[in-house]
Every structure is written in structure tokens, then in C-alpha cells.
């Protein structure tokens, strides 16, 4: 199975690398949402967050925290988004787990999430179903 991020990790195709650790690679997104948009990627292939093991997830998040803090402090960033898209419907284009680190600037024009409201017991139903699932696993 071919994977563009595995190819970047294995240096088969080029990318603009920001940081390379033992388990994690960080490189600039080829089509940045804002200046400095980068991807934080485990070197082992996991399709999404459900597939990654606990230790690898810990290493990935530790790198995300380290790079985000270094980025923020070295650039004087006001803030940033850390985003994982899981599944096509959520906007996942590359099926190799990755975190988007998107620096945010005043008036950068990126749309915020919408905010709705729950009707009736729809939220309670979801919570009950999640807990039933967990209790019956
Ligand atoms: P997602 O939609 O969450 O799967 O994000 C995939 C991201 O990978 C997109 O933002 C793409 O712009 C980015 N991307 C795709 N190919 C490359 C590449 N060769 N080098 C760097 N970023 C890439
Ligand atoms: Zn891969």
C-alpha cells in the first residue's frame, strides 16, 4: 500500500522538514492554511487515531507539545490550532495519522467552528450509547 507520508518519512519524496525525532517527523504542509502550518507525524504508519498504540500516541503528543511551544515562543504567536482529521467526512485526505499545527494570527480569516444547541434528549442519548458501548466491550 503506498502512503505519501511514509514516502516522506523514508525520504523517497522530499518535504520541508522542521524537526526529526526518533519516532516523529514534523514538516511544513505543502498547502498551508496559514503561514507556518505544519504536520506532526508518527514515523510508524497508523491510519487514524483509533489505530495508534498508547506509547506511540504519547510520543506523538509529547512532540506536538514541544514543537508547538517552541514555535509559539520563537515566533511570538498569539495561538494555534492542533487538529486531527479522522475519516473522509471529517476532511482526512492522507490516511496516515497526523496532527495539523496551524498558527493563528489576528484577522487570518480562518473560519471558526459553528455553535448550535441540543434539542430534547439527543445529547443524553449519545452519552448513554457511548457508555453502553464502553461497558459492553
Ligand atoms: P488531512 O486532510 O488532514 O488528511 O491533511 C493532509 C494534509 O497533507 C493536507 O493539508 C495537505 O496539504 C498535506 N499534504 C499532502 N501532500 C503533502 C506533501 N507531499 N507534503 C506536505 N504536505 C502534504
Ligand atoms: Zn504511512
pLDDT averaged over residues:
96
**Fold-level CATH name:** HIT family, subunit A
List of distinct ligands in this structure: adenosine monophosphate, zinc ion
Which CATH top level class fits? Alpha Beta
Order of helices and strands: HEEEHEEH
Which CATH architecture is right? 2-Layer Sandwich
| β-strand number | 5
DSSP helical segment count: 3
* Quaternary organisation: single chain
Number of domains: 1
**Helix content percent band:** 25-40%
The biggest beta sheet reads: 5 strands, antiparallel
Please state the structural category. alpha+beta
Q: State the CATH superfamily name.
A: HIT-like
Strand content: 15-25%
Give the overall form.
globular
Instruction: Write down the Rg.
Output: 17 Å
> Would you identify the regions where 5 or more consecutive residues have pLDDT less than 50?
none
Account of the protein in words:
- With 137 residues, this protein is an alpha+beta fold.
- It has a single domain (4-135), classed as HIT family, subunit A, CATH 3.30.428.
- Helix content is 31%, strand content 18%.
- It has helices at residues 4-9, 54-75, 122-136, and strands spanning 17-20, 24-28, 38-42, 79-83, 99-104.
- A five-stranded antiparallel beta sheet has the order 1-2-3-5-4, with helices on one face.
- The two termini are 31 Å apart.
- The model has no long low-confidence stretch (mean pLDDT 96).
- Zinc ion (ZN) binds at residues 3, 5-6, 45, 96.
Amino acid at each position: 500500500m503506498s502512503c505519501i507520508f511514509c514516502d516522506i518519512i523514508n525520504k523517497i519524496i522530499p518535504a520541508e522538514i522542521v524537526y526529526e525525532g526518533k519516532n516523529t517527523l514534523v514538516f511544513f504542509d505543502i498547502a498551508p492554511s496559514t503561514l507556518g502550518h505544519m504536520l506532526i507525524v508518527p514515523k510508524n504508519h497508523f491510519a487514524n487515531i483509533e489505530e495508534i498504540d498508547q506509547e506511540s500516541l504519547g510520543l506523538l503528543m509529547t512532540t506536538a507539545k514541544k514543537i508547538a511551544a517552541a514555535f509559539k515562543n520563537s515566533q511570538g504567536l498569539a495561538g494555534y490550532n492542533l487538529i486531527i482529521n479522522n475519516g473522509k467526512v471529517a476532511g482526512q485526505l492522507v490516511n496516515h495519522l497526523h496532527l495539523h499545527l496551524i498558527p493563528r494570527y489576528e484577522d487570518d480569516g480562518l473560519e471558526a467552528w459553528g455553535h448550535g444547541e441540543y434539542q430534547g434528549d439527543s445529547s443524553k442519548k449519545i452519552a448513554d450509547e457511548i457508555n453502553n458501548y464502553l461497558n459492553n466491550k
